[in-house]
């Protein structure tokens, strides 16, 4: 059974997002999966491959970095594989296999400092909000990079729930490896 994330939380997200370029859809939670009733405006794309837990390649080799979330490292040069990084990568590979249609919704900045496309990612078939689902499942922690913080308050609440439940990295990794 789906339950709506509290109106107070949604209101705080909307207030924080005044002037945002993304119209914030209402978030629904069913277990650890977060969906929206309607896909936001954006660009449709097809997943070509998953790089790691928070980065995919779409279309003609366009790297897309998920806004507002950070998964443990698995492929970063000169960085060892981090606790729960492989699990986050595998989760993203399962929910976004090659050929999956997605909607990319953009924030204030369209690219990050590495020239990757910066986006909120929604699976088109069932409107699964990938960024939020990663946080709620404990596969990612929140990452605020202004001015791209439209969902930051909602992500903080989802992270709090994941921590309290010791989900994912919050139950598997020691404080020193987080």
Short structural description:
By secondary structure, this protein is of the alpha+beta class. The chain is 25% helix and 28% strand.
Total number of helices: 5
Distance N to C terminus: 32 Å
Category from helices, strands and their pairing: alpha+beta
Main pleated-sheet profile: 5 strands, mixed, barrel
Global Rg: 15 Å
What is the count of β-strands?
11
Structure overview:
The protein is α+β, with helices and mostly antiparallel strands and 178 residues long. The protein has 5 helices and 11 strands. It has a 5-stranded mixed barrel. The longest helix is centred in the C-terminal third of the chain and has 13 residues. The termini are far apart. The N terminus is likely disordered.
Keywords:
disordered N terminus; 5 helices; three-stranded antiparallel sheet; alpha+beta; five-stranded mixed beta barrel; 178 residues
Protein topology:
Layout: E1 3-4, H1 7-16, E2 27-30, E3 33-36, E4 43-52, E5 55-58, E6 62-66, E7 69-71, H2 85-95, E8 101-105, E9 117-123, E10 128-129, H3 130-136, E11 140-142, H4 152-164, H5 169-172
Parallel strand pairs: 6-9
Antiparallel strand pairs: 1-2, 2-3, 4-5, 4-8, 5-6, 7-11, 8-9, 9-10
Helix pairs in contact: 1-4
